[in-house]
UniProtKB/TrEMBL annotation:
GO cellular component, one term: microtubule
One term of GO molecular function: microtubule binding
Keywords attached to this entry: ATP-binding, Coiled coil, Microtubule, Motor protein, Nucleotide-binding
Protein known as: Kinesin-like protein
Coiled coil stretches, renumbered: none
Entry-linked Gene3D superfamilies: Kinesin motor domain
Taxonomic source organism: Alligator sinensis (Chinese alligator)
Transmembrane residue ranges: none
Statement: the UniProt record of this protein carries the keyword 4Fe-4S: no
Pfam family, one: Kinesin
SMART domains listed in its UniProt record: KISc
Amino acid sequence: MANVKVAVRVRPLSKRENAEEGRIIVEVDNKVAKVRNIKVDNRLDGPWDSREKIVAFSFDYCYWSIDPEDPKYASQEVVFQDLGTSVLSGAFKGYNICLFAYGQTGSGKTYTMMGTPASVGLTPRICEGLFSRQDDYSEQPASCRVEVSFLEIYNERVRDLLKQSDHKKPYTLRVREHPETGPYVQGLSQHLVTDYKQVVGLLEEGIAKRITAATHIHDASSRSHAIFTIHYTQAILENNLPSEIASKINLVDLAGSERADPSYCKDRITEGANINKSLVTLGIVISTLAQNSQMFSSCQSINSITSEGDSSPVGSHTTGSVSGTRRQAYIPYRDSILTWLLKDSLGGNSKTIMVARISLNQCLFFIYSHLSCQLQLQ
Ligand SMILES: Nc1ncnc2c1ncn2[C@@H]1O[C@H](COP(=O)(O)OP(=O)(O)O)[C@@H](O)[C@H]1O
Ligand SMILES: [Mg+2]
């Protein structure tokens, strides 16, 4: 599995969009999403307007979730079978995993990550998968431990969604960095869970606490990033000695990616600026990681060519001479709380899945997702 995968999901039109006679401008064909530019749709073809009518973008997965009667309809189960099972198999192997939903407010991020009671989303399904692990993974661990935490980042400040906090000052938790174990939130409550029912109880408790504020797009829009973290530790025997495989799964429901409208009140604008800051930093971090890994693989291939032409044993070459000339770019994890906290799940021993969601008129974010996809996977 490539280290970063990008999926895109198209949701049905909302009642409001239907009432306004909105049109779906995206088509999905296997792994390709095609966006129709309605501004040039009725144009007579000619050399004076070079804009494309349809622009196609490739993704690792494209989900069409418009009409359940449609044979290509992607239900919550279909999304879980692709993305959720990748998360689970990565966690069982000891990877840190990060799965996050990106898109405008109302595009269906929370629906995909959490779902509704009638249509359960990725997070509860992944938790269920951790507890019902069987069959496909023949090497069963002797025992495993699941600990969860749930936090919210709002205006670059953190609060615990699973602990009663001071109503006047709820966002007081500090992010710190341990030299060995990496960034963590000081004082964040960790909850040991032994079955699926307990996890669902905690998820519901945290969701109820998430801050919502009315925006012109969606009445109960989430203006904060929510990170549900699962620490999954397996006790195993390695060469007959007791050992542990630890992995961390971060399931992130990002705040809306829309631009702040200058007609909003001051609080809304501050929110928007902070949301954009963390999303921009996230984009920079992901593309810098991609550039670095590309540089690393080209260094590796140069080394393999050099060692092929040389009779010295494998291993006698180090990457030093090559990597010494091309430095890895600095990754600005600490420029936002979101990226700082996700540091060890974005880089290093980790796998990242991004689910971008689109609805009627979200070409901007769509293109952004496409760019990060290209950067990661080229
Ligand atoms: N794939 C989907 N199928 C059916 N309804 C959806 C789908 N995605 C989103 N919705 C509905 O659209 C509305 C907005 O979705 P929501 O997840 O709250 O958006 P966001 O979290 O991005 O702001 C909700 O009423 C949700 O139930
Ligand atoms: Mg939401």
